[in-house]
Amino acid sequence: MADQRTLEEVRADIDAIDREIQALISRRAGCAQRVADIKLEQMQAASERGETPGEVVYYRPEREAQVLKRIMDRNEGPLAGETVAHIFREIMSACLALEKPLQVAYLGPEGTFTHAATIKHFGHAAIPVSQNTIDAVFARVESGECNYGVVPVENSTEGMVSHTLDNFMDSRLKISGEVEMPIVHHLLVAPGTEQMAVTKICAHQQALAQCRNWLDLHWPNTEREAVSSNGEAARLAAATPGVAAVAGDMAAELYGLEKLAEHIEDYADNTTRFLVVGRDEVPSSGRDKTSIIVSSRNKPGALYALLDPFRKAGVSLTRIDTRPSRTEKWAYVFFIEFEGHLQDDNIRAIVSELEEQSILLKPLGSYPRAVL
Ligand SMILES: C=C(O[C@@H]1C=C(C(=O)O)C=C[C@H]1O)C(=O)O
């Protein structure tokens, strides 16, 4: 039978449902607090037994990935699975922050896609801490000033991939997660700015490149200026009459800008990938990826030999990059990513086979595959 409720009745139902949701969220937060207490008790017990206590780890990336995956899988609509998962992302973030909000270093400034990726991964209850360079992100996490760090690694608008990879070579940090962000650009202006008044368009050079066809078509005669980041472009647009910025939603929100045009990127499915770095190894979530750095002797067939163990075991590679080794001329290191976890038997076997034929093998960590 069709829904016969009146507007008043539906609103009364919504109010009643909201009360239930709120009570359930509070109950959930109580459970998260109890989990935290148990973790603390276990740590104290270990310490009393004379075991090295370390610090209590409240944040569990593998557990969060499992929770989000289950939410997506059992979703029946009408909301999209991703939408529901975003809501739960925020609930988990708030529950975790009851203990202590996570401090997350990221490649800034504010309003960049890396900033947006940080919030996407950790939720709004974490504290994002802007850093000027990728090196500084690594340093803040290594020193313990921040719990985690977020850096761009692939096809980025604001960071050099190679720089991130170079950092891993010297760092003892582990990868604890990945974040994927669709790159969506808008033409942004200070509120009330007319199209006629725009005399200059600022953006990061990559953003200008990603929107070149659209800009050539619609703004062929307007000056374009490359600036240090999308966040900086947005800041300039907010502060300087006549300046428009090409940047994403995060920058638009942060600097209170209006959209003269939306979705101006030339290729719709442009995604940037970010890595989360931390000090701890992450246990298996059941849907993981692993990254390693390996360097082989410079002889014919070396790369083939490095990849053959993966083929034999039927393990999918998700990425492979080459970087010149800084210790030896004409030697190369490979940054390889594949499906599976370092604790899985087949992955262990591959890694020990690789160890035998390489000069250097450094596991960078296993981490849950991006859910959102
Ligand atoms: C509650 C826990 O701690 C944290 C909070 C979680 C949550 O709110 O669901 C999940 C994992 C942890 O980041 C846990 O370990 O289960």
Automatic annotation (TrEMBL):
<keyword id="KW-0028">Amino-acid biosynthesis</keyword>
<dbReference type="InterPro" id="IPR001086">
    <property type="entry name" value="Preph_deHydtase"/>
</dbReference>
<dbReference type="InterPro" id="IPR036263">
    <property type="entry name" value="Chorismate_II_sf"/>
</dbReference>
<dbReference type="InterPro" id="IPR002701">
    <property type="entry name" value="CM_II_prokaryot"/>
</dbReference>
<dbReference type="GO" id="GO:0009094">
    <property type="term" value="P:L-phenylalanine biosynthetic process"/>
</dbReference>
<keyword id="KW-0511">Multifunctional enzyme</keyword>
<feature type="domain" description="Prephenate dehydratase">
    <location>
        <begin position="103"/>
        <end position="279"/>
    </location>
</feature>
<comment type="function">
    <text>Catalyzes the Claisen rearrangement of chorismate to prephenate and the decarboxylation/dehydration of prephenate to phenylpyruvate.</text>
</comment>
<dbReference type="InterPro" id="IPR002912">
    <property type="entry name" value="ACT_dom"/>
</dbReference>
<dbReference type="InterPro" id="IPR010957">
    <property type="entry name" value="G/b/e-P-prot_chorismate_mutase"/>
</dbReference>
<dbReference type="Pfam" id="PF01842">
    <property type="entry name" value="ACT"/>
</dbReference>
<dbReference type="InterPro" id="IPR045865">
    <property type="entry name" value="ACT-like_dom_sf"/>
</dbReference>
<dbReference type="InterPro" id="IPR018528">
    <property type="entry name" value="Preph_deHydtase_CS"/>
</dbReference>
<feature type="domain" description="ACT">
    <location>
        <begin position="291"/>
        <end position="368"/>
    </location>
</feature>
<dbReference type="GO" id="GO:0005737">
    <property type="term" value="C:cytoplasm"/>
</dbReference>
<dbReference type="Pfam" id="PF01817">
    <property type="entry name" value="CM_2"/>
</dbReference>
<dbReference type="Pfam" id="PF00800">
    <property type="entry name" value="PDT"/>
</dbReference>
<dbReference type="GO" id="GO:0004664">
    <property type="term" value="F:prephenate dehydratase activity"/>
</dbReference>
<feature type="domain" description="Chorismate mutase">
    <location>
        <begin position="1"/>
        <end position="103"/>
    </location>
</feature>
<keyword id="KW-0584">Phenylalanine biosynthesis</keyword>
<protein>
    <recommendedName>
        <fullName>Bifunctional chorismate mutase/prephenate dehydratase</fullName>
        <ecNumber>4.2.1.51</ecNumber>
        <ecNumber>5.4.99.5</ecNumber>
    </recommendedName>
</protein>
<dbReference type="GO" id="GO:0004106">
    <property type="term" value="F:chorismate mutase activity"/>
</dbReference>
<keyword id="KW-0413">Isomerase</keyword>
<feature type="site" description="Essential for prephenate dehydratase activity">
    <location>
        <position position="272"/>
    </location>
</feature>
<dbReference type="GO" id="GO:0046417">
    <property type="term" value="P:chorismate metabolic process"/>
</dbReference>
<dbReference type="InterPro" id="IPR036979">
    <property type="entry name" value="CM_dom_sf"/>
</dbReference>
<keyword id="KW-0456">Lyase</keyword>
<dbReference type="InterPro" id="IPR008242">
    <property type="entry name" value="Chor_mutase/pphenate_deHydtase"/>
</dbReference>
<comment type="pathway">
    <text>Amino-acid biosynthesis; L-phenylalanine biosynthesis; phenylpyruvate from prephenate: step 1/1.</text>
</comment>
<keyword id="KW-0057">Aromatic amino acid biosynthesis</keyword>
<keyword id="KW-0963">Cytoplasm</keyword>
<comment type="pathway">
    <text>Metabolic intermediate biosynthesis; prephenate biosynthesis; prephenate from chorismate: step 1/1.</text>
</comment>
